[in-house]
Write a structure and sequence with these properties.
Layout (H helix, E strand, L loop, with lengths): L1 H17 L18 E11 L6 E8 L2 E8 L3 H6 L12 E8 L6 E8 L5 E3 L4
Parallel strand pairs: 3-5
Antiparallel strand pairs: 1-2, 1-4, 2-3, 4-5, 5-6
Length: 126
């Protein structure tokens, strides 16, 4: 009985180190879920790639200019919600709303964007 149990444990250990589990690659954004943050600015750069498309925007407020990154989920989720790689273009003025990194970095896990024409684009559901 003990030999069988040890053999099973050894096999499970071997399989778990050789066969990657789907959840092992998943990670969460290090954001504060306490409140939504909204920034309005001009799109400077677009990186339309997995694991997270990122948009660099320049925000001008109170005479100061700040650079913020706003990022979405995987491309497949963005595309399922109507996004394409040309939804945002450099020079577009957008308002991004999401959850900011908890360490204070000017990075937002995007929930939605309001485009310059007033159209709202969500990333996690219509």
């Amino acid at each position: 009985m003990m030999r069988s149990l040890l053999a099973s444990a050894a096999i499970l250990t071997l399989v778990s180190t050789v066969v990657p589990l789907p959840l092992s690659a998943h990670h969460s954004w290090p954001v504060s879920m306490d409140k939504l943050v909204t920034v309005k600015g001009t799109v400077q750069k677009i990186e339309w790639a997995n694991p997270h498309p990122m948009f660099t925007i320049e925000v001008r407020e109170d005479g100061k200019t700040e650079t913020w990154l706003i990022g979405g989920p995987a491309l497949t989720r963005m595309e399922a919600n109507g996004w394409t790689k040309t939804t945002l273009k450099p020079g577009d003025v957008v308002t991004g709303t999401g959850f900011q990194f908890s360490d204070g970095q000017k990075i937002i896990r995007l929930e939605r964007v309001v485009l310059s024409d007033g159209k709202e684009m969500r990333v996690y559901g219509r």
